[in-house]
Write a structure and sequence with these properties.
By secondary structure, this protein is of the alpha+beta class. The chain is 23% helix and 36% strand. The termini are far apart. The strands form five sheets. Strands 6-5-2-3-4-8-7 form a seven-stranded antiparallel beta sheet. A six-stranded antiparallel β-barrel has the order 10-11-12-15-14-13. The chain contains five helices and 23 strands. It folds into three domains: 49 residues; 233 residues, Thrombin, subunit H (Beta Barrel), CATH 2.40.10.120; 92 residues, PDZ domain (Pdz3 Domain). The longest helix is centred in the first third of the chain and has 48 residues.
Length: 389
């Protein structure tokens, strides 16, 4: 009988030991999981701190207020441009909206100008606002409303008609500022478009980046050739000044045109291309050292030129009224072959060559209606973005 009792006691002890080992094993497994979670959270926190995460507010030690701070997008981050879930879109959108403003224009009598309400973003803590040129009206009063409802009268620092960029300034405190990103994105990457929709309600839509390409758009300054990024969007908006945002919460482009042939397509100027223009506007009130011939030209490929026995070059499609070349110079229908003895076969190359000169430039053309080659010395026009003069 005693042997049976001893056996049952041993079995009970072994059972309790097994249970203890199981509890210990579960505890160790839970500790490992918690440790891993802490490591992951620490990594995410580091991204926020070092400027690569959503809504980062850290500034370099040498940062100077009044210049556009652009952070390099991390190309090694595999999640930077991958599809995101609804919660991430909400976080990204809120980050940008907190730094956004609504810009309204009033006449001298204090009445709102009905068709002028623009989206904008706070550039830095000194109160610079980036928005659309549409807010500019003669003898008007401009009001900026922050996302938190605070309102300020704004001063126009300057603008650029060519790119539809305008910089305002307000005297405000504790301003939430936007984050700007540079590079890293390519065709097909996902992005968000954030602006103002009907009834001035924020418009947020998800889309894809198209190829960056040179394209002419018509502005108040005449034909403007810009390197634009095409972006599809689901919801159309009625207000200017929207922005393109990557999945890190960084603004990577400023809307400057909407395609005429599609309500779901817009064109944006990249932050990389807008950076120098914005800094110029803040420093001078206009774009400095930019020159143009004031022409509207189109590229002619060999496929088009061969049947007509034309040389490859740029077809002069229009001479806007702001063009001030001598009467005995270019004509519509001429084909530009070279700029200062350098052959041109694309509009982008043409613009790059013109940017190297500030006064005059020698242009060789072929005139089909006379079947002859001519060389002209043409005067470059300073394009400040305020007007061409």
């Amino acid at each position: 009988m005693d042997d049976i009792k001893d056996q049952k006691t041993d079995e009970g002890t072994m059972g309790r030991r097994s249970l203890n080992f199981a509890i210990l094993g579960f505890g160790l497994m839970l500790l490992v999981l918690l440790t891993g979670a802490v490591v992951v959270m620490g990594s995410l926190l580091k991204q926020f701190i070092d400027g690569r995460g959503i809504g980062s507010r850290s500034l370099p030690d040498d940062y100077v207020l009044g210049t556009l701070l652009v952070r390099e997008a991390p190309v090694d981050n595999e999640y930077s441009y991958s599809p995101v879930n609804d919660h991430m879109i909400q976080d990204i959108s809120r980050t940008v909206l907190l730094a956004s403003v609504k810009v309204k224009t009033y006449n001298q009598g204090g009445l709102p100008i009905a068709d002028v309400t623009c989206f904008g973003v706070v550039m830095d803590e000194s109160g610079y606002i980036i928005t659309s040129v549409d807010v500019i009206r003669d003898e008007s009063i401009i009001e900026v409303e922050l996302y938190d409802g605070r309102k300020y009268m704004a001063t126009v620092i300057g603008y650029d008609l060519k790119t539809d960029l305008c910089v305002l300034r307000i005297d405000g405190q504790n301003l939430r500022t936007a984050s700007f990103g540079s590079g890293g994105m390519k065709e097909g990457d996902g992005c968000l478009y954030i602006g103002l929709g009907q009834r001035e309600i924020p418009n947020i839509s998800q889309g894809l980046l198209g190829a960056s390409e040179g394209r002419y758009i018509m502005t108040e300054a005449g034909y403007s050739y810009l390197k634009l990024t095409a972006t599809d969007r689901v919801v159309s908006d009625r207000c200017s000044g929207g922005v393109i945002v990557n999945y890190l919460g960084q603004i990577v482009g400023f809307r400057c045109a909407v395609a005429d042939d599609s309500l779901n397509m817009l064109y944006a100027l990249s932050v990389d291309d807008a950076r120098g223009i914005i800094d110029d506007i803040i420093k001078h009130g206009y774009v400095n050292d930019r020159y143009t011939l004031g022409l509207f030209v189109e590229s002619i490929s060999e496929v088009v030129s061969r049947p007509k026995q034309w040389p490859v070059g740029l077809y002069v499609a229009d001479l806007p009224a702001l063009n001030r070349q001598p009467e005995e110079s270019l004509m519509i229908g001429d084909i530009i072959l070279s700029v200062s003895e350098e052959s041109v076969d694309s509009v982008e190359l043409f613009e790059q060559l013109l940017s190297q000169y500030t006064e005059t430039v020698v242009v060789q053309i072929y005139r089909p209606i006379e079947d002859r080659y001519i060389e002209f010395e043409l005067e470059l026009i300073e394009d400040t973005g305020l007007y061409l003069h």
